[in-house]
Design goal:
The complex is a heterodimer of chains A (113) and B (113).
Chain A: E1 3-6, E2 11-14, E3 19-21, E4 23-26, E5 32-38, E6 44-50, E7 56-59, E8 62-65, E9 75-77, E10 86-93, E11 102-103, E12 107-112
Parallel strand pairs in A: 2-12
Antiparallel strand pairs in A: 1-4, 3-9, 5-6, 5-10, 7-8, 8-9, 10-11, 10-12
Chain B: E1 5-7, E2 10-13, E3 19-24, E4 31-37, E5 43-50, E6 53-56, E7 65-68, E8 75-79, E9 88-95, E10 103-104, E11 108-112
Parallel strand pairs in B: 2-11
Antiparallel strand pairs in B: 1-3, 3-8, 4-5, 4-9, 5-6, 7-8, 9-10, 9-11
Classes of the chains: A mainly beta (113), B mainly beta (113).
Chain lengths: 113, 113
């Protein structure tokens, strides 16, 4: 079946540090890949997505590249801010007529001033 | 436009009691989804409505859970009787069509004691 594995959290960084949150997936066919973010007290929001191999999704300074050869979709940001503190979820939709996302466990990011 | 609204935001009930969660989707969104996140684990799909019909309820854990969507508008998720393992955050999401992006609500945190 389909699955998403994320690195364990929490990830604790100082402001302006470089961020990487690892995500790998297992899926048949050609999935689309997503990163969602949940800020404290809010719902999940789509952060970025990529729909085919070698696509790079980007938004708000975050980037992730769809790597089919390593089945990965790692989230990166060059310089984090305190306001980036949130829980980040990697997800996939398998395609082939199925659009229900499969989520990872989420990774909590804490950024200190 | 108003977002997806869920209430209550928090609920603490005793084992054996009944709880009803409500989700108001974005107006005009035919697709409504329920998800659950048990502490520290993946966000798991529960079920999917298209208008008032259950399109997919493969994720419902057992018959203590009952979801309805009266008239294709708001939806309720009832847990009766609640067990300790039902504790978690219940998310609702809606979308205009299955290939459109989801909008998530901020979730209901259910604690069964």
């Amino acid at each position: 079946g389909n699955s998403v594995t994320q690195m364990e959290g929490p990830v604790t960084l100082s402001e302006e540090a470089f961020l990487t949150i690892n995500c790998t997936y297992t899926a048949t066919g050609y999935p689309s890949l997503f990163w969602y973010v949940q800020y404290p007290g809010e719902g999940l929001q789509l952060l970025l997505k990529a729909t085919k191999a070698d696509d790079k999704g980007s938004n708000k300074g975050f980037e992730a590249t769809y790597r089919k050869e390593t089945t990965s979709f790692h989230l990166e940001k060059g310089s984090v801010q305190v306001s980036d503190s949130a829980v980040y979820f990697c997800a996939l939709t398998p395609g082939g007529g199925s659009y229900i996302p499969t989520f990872g466990r989420g990774t909590s990011l804490i950024v200190h001033p | 436009e108003a977002g997806v609204t869920q209430f209550p935001s928090h609920s603490v009930i005793e084992k054996g009691q009944t709880v009803t969660l409500r989700c108001d989707p974005i107006s005009g969104h035919d697709n409504l989804y329920w998800y659950r996140r048990v502490m520290g684990k993946e966000i798991k799909f529960l079920l999917h409505f298209v208008k008032e019909s259950k399109q997919d309820e493969s994720g419902m854990p057992n018959n203590r859970f009952l979801a309805e969507r009266t008239g294709g508008t708001y939806s309720t998720l009832k847990v009766q009787p609640a067990e300790l393992e039902d504790s978690g955050v219940y998310f609702c999401a809606s979308s205009k069509g299955q290939t459109y992006g989801y909008t998530f609500g901020s979730g209901t945190r259910l604690t069964v004691v």
